């Protein structure tokens, strides 16, 4: 855990927990590991066990729980908890940082900035707090303030360098932005070993494609109707699926499930339920036999109960969006659990996706953020995987474009609602506009005008997609 | 021949190497043939026969441009070898260069006026150019030289039938069972082929001999046969059983020769039009296939859930079975239907089956698309789905027959030289009144065709 290798820590943490289930530190450790490996719902359980075993309001455990709730998108609960444990004299710097992030995300910008500024006054050399403050500058479109706060570039670590690049981009100093991003990624690759590792992803894609074919999936049993209709949102990172989810959340009857409790977690259950010893997805063949036919229904129930635990199933909620980044892997399993669930795929010009992800501090599968060529390969892998499922399965699939979404959110939302089968009118233009912050459609053009060779390395990989997705002939342009 | 071919350290005579190369190509060992051809060419780049054979090998490996380059070079070096233009005729045809194919074909018969194969190749080119009288004449020349030449007889039949000369065409069409690919289509029996005379109940065996489309098309004549021979036995593939079971008058349907029972005569389904004297003006009406209402309802409800409301539903099939001899000519890519996809008032419902279904994965066009193919089990499903769409747009494949036989409106896109059954110079079909035909204006060129389909929706 100390080295940040949370996935590797999972097995020893589990052993420790089994050896001492009443040990609060073992429960706490499990909470950390699960939260940091993307299973926040399970992590929450262990944090709560730890707190109960401690029998007191331990500041570290409570602030970690608050961070866990933030990861689940439960911002109000997280803020309430942080408010309880982070007092004016708190020395918990990470807790203060988390609290500030939560408040910022809740729209309480002044409070967030006050927290960060207060903490920086006490610990002026804390780079994490400073970086959070820089990110707040950037979110408020104050790039010069961010640059001033960061100081000279030669002293910056990669994450700070990425923020510097974003500030440059906001100032229109595009060449300097690209240089900053490239330098940050270079250091991450060379010093932190964050190079793209595509082999396991390619192997997984090959295995899923070999299994999920029309002939093999057709005879598998499917679950019946559930308690609500999930709406699956696909999209490469930074494509705008989050924006679409926010817009849908304005519509009566919708709840935003974000990335919590994903179908990927159910894939792990398939082999256990099947019991035949085969791994996923081959284990699905056991669903053909005897009681196996009930398995899709059981998995769907599990999916629903996990969503219910997140507090998503409020009265009146009929649709819950699911924006898990891993969904593109699991359209085959989704087909068995929700055969006719709407699947909305947010497309965005691949060059814009490259730019946006290259400069963001977000770790992608296989370290795909490591370079633009790595991003391009990962983009192709995702697009091929989605394409495979679309060819082999009858899906209720609708592609929408980010560019159209930011240009005319109301019209796109209307089209999406029609597709889902919702007759309620979408919220008014003004209300939607408030959510549409980013006007970054086709921003790669300005970059290409200054740096014509910027995408030379990835042109071969991306041109077929640019063409297939209708971006080549200007079809999608305003 | 003199000279030698070096393979590693072993030296073998050129004649043996050429023989080996030809053998490898005939045995479909194409990678080995390619390797040998390349080595031989490296050693003797100007040898016409090596060039010619290497060209054939390149063609078989899908490298048509290289094939033509090699073969043209061979012909230039040895312009009087009849074999060269004869084979080039076919390669040019495969490349869609019909003028060159015609020139080569004519040169081949000029150099070898007693070569039946050369005339047959030329007949094929005339068919592709829709010069049907010439196609028949060249087939006749081939038959004059070799009366027992099934391919030439069959080519003659196809040209005559396409020209609407049905009576003559049906007679030549009988040669189809002597074609190599027809082996095993008919039962091994000493019983005669049916001559159209009455037989006792259950004593006529009807064989679903050709492709799915043919069986559906000719299935309409089973009631006519049953008037003469009640309760005939129908032998066909398992895939056709559910749909052909709908036809009235059939005694029983079998899928294995040993279940045919004690029949007194047999007749392939495709032999019925000849016996019934079918021309272009007396085709029994379509509408003889009807999907089960419950199945229609089931698919209609599914489509209502999957397809957006308020749009015309257009079912689509763009690819045929790749093993079909004319598949290259009839099959399109999904992307070639772009003019259709540009219409935002329609929803595409793909009823495509097979490997080409994967092309849906790359579709991002303006018209919404529902990919139903993966959930279609058999032709009954397809027929039921077609009841819930406004129109089918299809290439020349079995689904066109399903639509036609159940009177579903369909737009059929056809190559310049189509299969004989669609006749010429007409936008309708006497076999299927619900089908509207859209033909290529130039050989192998789909431009404008889909635009016309889209505009006519």
Provide structural commentary:
The complex is a heterodimer of chains A (478) and B (457). With 478 residues, chain A is mainly alpha-helical. Chain A folds into two domains: 6-192, Alpha Horseshoe (Serine Threonine Protein Phosphatase 5, Tetratricopeptide repeat), CATH 1.25.40.10; 199-468, Rossmann fold (3-Layer(aba) Sandwich). Chain A has 24 helices and five strands. Chain A has helices spanning 6-19, 24-36, 40-54, 59-71, 75-85, 93-105, 109-122, 127-139, 143-150, 158-170, 174-192, 199-211, 214-217, 241-249, 264-274, 295-309, 331-337, 350-358, 372-392, 402-407, 409-420, 429-435, 444-450, 459-468, and strands spanning 229-234, 254-256, 319-322, 342-347, 396-401. Chain A has a five-stranded parallel sheet. Chain A starts with 5 loop residues before the first helix and ends in a 10-residue tail after the last helix. Chain B has 457 residues and is α/β, with parallel strands linked by helices. Chain B has three domains: 4-182, Tetratricopeptide repeat domain (Serine Threonine Protein Phosphatase 5, Tetratricopeptide repeat); 204-276; 293-455, Glycogen Phosphorylase B (Rossmann fold), CATH 3.40.50. Helix content of chain B is 43%, strand content 11%. Chain B has 20 helices and twelve strands. Chain B has helices spanning 14-26, 30-43, 48-60, 64-77, 83-94, 98-111, 116-128, 132-145, 150-162, 166-173, 212-218, 222-228, 241-244, 272-276, 293-306, 327-330, 338-341, 379-386, 398-405, 449-455, and strands spanning 4-7, 10-13, 204-207, 233-235, 252-254, 265-268, 312-317, 346-350, 369-371, 391-395, 410-414, 435-439. Chain B has a six-stranded parallel sheet with strand order 9-8-7-10-11-12, with helices on both faces. In chain B, strands 5-4-3-6 form a four-stranded parallel sheet, with no helix packed on it. In chain B, α13 links the parallel β4 and β5 (252-254). The longest helix of chain B has 14 residues, at 30-43. Chain B is globular. Chain B starts with a strand and ends with a helix. The chains are: A mainly alpha (478), B alpha/beta (457). Chain A binds chain B through residues 214, 217-218, 340, 347, 384, 386-396, 398-399, 418-419, 421, 468-470, 475, and chain B through 305-306, 308-309, 357-366, 368, 370-375, 377. Chain A: InterPro entries: P-loop_NTPase, TPR-like_helical_dom_sf, TPST-like. Chain A: This is Tetratricopeptide (TPR) repeat protein. Chain A: GO terms for molecular function: protein-tyrosine sulfotransferase activity. Chain A: Keywords: Transferase.
